[in-house]
Design a protein that fits this description.
752 residues, 6-stranded mixed beta sheet, 32 helices, 16 strands
Length: 752
């Protein structure tokens, strides 16, 4: 076989009318690469209209290269480039990490990738003209603002069940114990050909499901140029029953760096080759798919008494001779061994004489020996890049800690925010040792703002900043899109985010030490730090564990979920480390993903875990509503509700007489009014006059005894809520920007 010495045919075709004869030649050349083509007519049309179609091929660098990866790809790329194609070879290093190859160690994976490149380039693949080698991590980092929104959109549009059906692309089945990374992997691989603007996907038959997914995505999004799928034959392993050559079983494969004796041993002693049987005969398959395409002939050398030497030019004659017994299995194996050794010898010579190649092969052998000790995810120290993403000044142990009066005061303020704190000792230690702890809070902009999001957040943030914390409020616009809020329309979601900011500023949030951060902007700006975190979290957590976090999105494990709802918890977990947070200050409904972050710290041996400070979830106003809901306006008080709306909603609120437990009105007093005003004033001249309460215990005691009536409780709560909300109402009446935002938000009634 000739080396890749052709000048790119694309340049000669550029700007020229392609003749019918030339189209047919190109079509036949390209079509011969695939065992199956979807769709033939599209391929012919493409080659008639485009001088230099882009062909996407790729590999996951994870071990030694066998001949199915090496020789077949070399032949395929030669055919494609001779037909004028530009071939982009995707070195899927991040995908190997997600698939837990080499323990997910990116440095080792890159070594394997360089070794694979060296083999291809030794065959003459020209990386300067019509063949490009592209590292997935480098390309995605360089254009993350294009890549990740595409991945997320694919995830949003496909159910989890559909994505699981693509598991064979990684050598798994949908019934295997899968990690969250396996779901992300499929969505990313679906995005790759679109990201690379590929006209043709040239991968193995085992990758067809995800290539079809890409075509379906093009149909759904009305994207014009669907990639043509050209799926090549999967060369089987040498042993009986092996449908695919496998790097994890050395005896099943011929490797590109196998020496002559090893090739002879594997073919002659290991290869499944029943006499006179063509079907399922591994040696005959290798002749058909490697030897004949490479040399255009297959020569069998043997004694005259056994028929003498014979050269075959087509597979049909070989199969006929073999079935009849005129070609013996031993002679077939000997001829195959000789032909393979002839092909592989130049590669062996290259790795013996070229210093870079020799060094790479030594590194590869070292890496693979280390990998034999373990083939699973282990708790390892993070890489340098990961360490930077996780770096927070870790306070020392709190054992025997003596808190100063100031630190004690800070602790009491911060602790008062949370219904639950994990862990109190860690919080004391943090506030004693770190002058300005970072607190992570956030929200998913998806509709009007109710008072649980408005008043409680203003109160909590002001407490945190008064205790010296720096508060980072994460405007989770991409998360709202993943959760299909407002129909996944990012422009609408951003309008709602601006409306939320406007309310908090009008509602008295102290801007000192508070920063509002848009998730989409921050992640796009520092994607090289963020996405490796997401992928590492995803590969270390099985799908069942991530599904249990569905509550954070208002979902249950039993719902029909999209792939996006698996990506969401992994991203939210990563947010905490990306923002270098010491404290996670979110609602009790977010507790599971915050615990996931602490478990991740245990897994990677990170000492300074984020402290979880989970605030109370204010219930809806109606009976049985555990959580205030924007989708049911009667169940919630909204920040721009007028006095009449507040009066009506509280007057109709569930408020059983002399009953404290499950009474929303009392909960609103406890978690909204008292923290805001430090008192609750009840006015009733008939029943003993006005009374000012400063503790909830006194209020609940009076209510249970009947001294505080339901009517008086409701009236006092209505008055207090209206006092809180009046500055916001005034702002949205007098400020033009605020008025405009509110009008837009009122039109966005769909939250899913």
């Amino acid at each position: 076989m000739e080396a890749f010495s052709e000048t790119a045919l694309a340049s000669s075709l550029a700007g020229l009318q392609i003749s019918d004869e030339e189209v047919e030649r190109r079509y036949n050349e390209v079509k011969s690469v695939g065992e199956q083509c979807i769709n033939d007519d599209e391929l012919r049309d493409l080659l008639a209209k485009k001088a230099a179609p882009v062909c996407y091929d790729g590999f996951e660098p994870s071990g030694r290269m066998h001949i199915a990866q090496g020789l077949m790809k070399i032949m395929s790329v030669k055919k494609l480039t001779s037909a004028g194609c530009r071939v982009k070879i995707w070195i899927a290093d991040w995908f190997a990490v997600m698939n837990n190859k080499l323990g997910g160690d990116l440095k080792k994976i890159r070594i394997i990738g360089e070794y694979h490149k060296e083999i291809f380039q030794a065959a003459g693949m020209n990386s300067e003209k019509n063949v490009e080698f592209l590292w997935s991590s480098d390309e995605i980092n360089a254009r993350g603002d294009e890549y990740w929104p595409l991945v997320m959109d694919i995830a949003c549009r496909n159910s989890l069940a559909k994505i699981k059906r693509c598991m064979p692309i990684m050598g798994h089945s949908e019934t295997d114990e899968l990690s969250a990374a396996h779901i992300l992997y499929v969505c990313m691989q679906c995005a790759d050909p679109l990201f690379l603007q590929a006209d043709i996907c040239q991968l193995g038959m085992d990758q067809q499901t995800v290539n079809l997914l890409a075509r379906e995505y093009c149909d759904e999004t009305k994207r014009g140029n669907k990639p043509v799928i050209l799926s090549h034959h999967m060369l089987p392993g040498l042993l009986q029953g092996q449908t695919k050559m496998c790097t994890s079983d050395p005896s099943s494969a011929i490797f590109m760096d196998d020496d002559e004796a090893e090739v002879n041993r594997k073919i002659r002693k290991k290869a499944f080759c029943l006499p006179k049987i063509v079907e399922g005969n591994k040696c005959l398959e290798y002749v058909k798919y490697i030897i004949l395409p490479w040399f255009s002939e297959f020569t069998v050398e043997r004694d005259e008494k056994f028929g003498g030497n014979k050269t075959f030019n087509n597979f049909e004659d070989i199969a006929a001779d073999y079935e009849s017994g005129r070609l013996h299995a031993k002679d077939l194996k000997d001829a195959l061994s000789k032909a393979l050794n002839k092909i592989l010898q130049p590669f062996r010579d290259h790795f013996k004489t070229n210093n870079r190649a020799k060094n790479l092969l030594e590194q590869v052998n070292t890496v693979l020996k280390q990998d034999q000790k373990t083939n699973r995810v282990v708790a390892t120290a993070p890489s340098k890049e990961m360490e930077e993403a996780l770096s927070v000044n870790a306070p020392s142990s709190s054992a025997g800690l003596q808190m100063s009066e100031e630190a004690e005061k800070k602790y009491n303020i911060v602790r008062s925010i949370g219904e639950e704190c994990i862990q109190e000792d860690e919080l004391k230690n943090l506030l004693s040792k770190k002058p300005t702890p970072i607190c992570y809070d956030g929200f998913e902009p998806s509709g009007r703002m109710h008072i649980a999001q408005g008043v409680m957040k203003v109160t909590n943030v002001n407490k945190l900043t008064s205790a010296g914390c720096q508060v980072k409020i994460w405007i989770a616009d991409w998360f709202a899109q993943l959760n299909n809020k407002l129909g996944g329309d990012l422009e609408k979601i951003k309008v709602v985010g601006e409306y939320f900011k406007e309310i908090w500023q009008a509602g008295g949030m102290n801007p000192e030490k508070v920063s509002f951060l848009w998730a989409s902007e921050e992640i796009s700006r520092k994607g090289d730090k963020y996405w490796p975190l997401v992928m590492d979290i995803a590969r270390r957590n099985n799908l069942r564990r991530i599904l249990r976090c569905g509550q954070i999105m208002g979902r249950s494990e039993t719902e029909v979920l999209s792939a996006a709802q698996i990506l969401y918890p992994c991203m939210q977990c990563a947010d905490i480390f990306f923002l270098e947070a010491d404290i996670c200050q979110l609602g009790m409904d977010q507790r599971k993903v915050n615990m996931l972050a602490r478990e991740y710290c245990d897994d990677i041996k990170r000492k300074n875990k984020p402290i979880i400070l989970s605030h109370h979830m204010l219930p809806g106003l109606l009976e049985g509503q555990e959580k205030m809901s924007k989708s049911n306006p009667s169940s919630a008080i909204f920040m721009e509700d007028d006095e009449d709306a507040v009066n009506e909603k509280i007057s109709n609120a569930h408020c059983p007489e002399r009953t404290v437990a499950g009474n929303p009105c009392l909960e609103y007093v406890k978690f909204l009014v008292l923290p805001r005003f430090n008192e609750f004033v009840v006015q009733n001249e008939k029943n003993g006059g006005n009374k000012t309460f400063t503790s909830f215990d006194d209020i609940s005691a009076d209510y249970e005894s009947g001294e505080l009536s339901r009517e008086d409780l409701r009236k006092a709560l209505i008055k207090a809520l209206n006092i809180m909300l009046q500055p916001v109402r005034d702002h949205f009446k007098t400020n033009e920007r605020a008025k405009n935002l509110l009008e837009q938000v009122k039109l966005f009634r769909v939250t899913r």
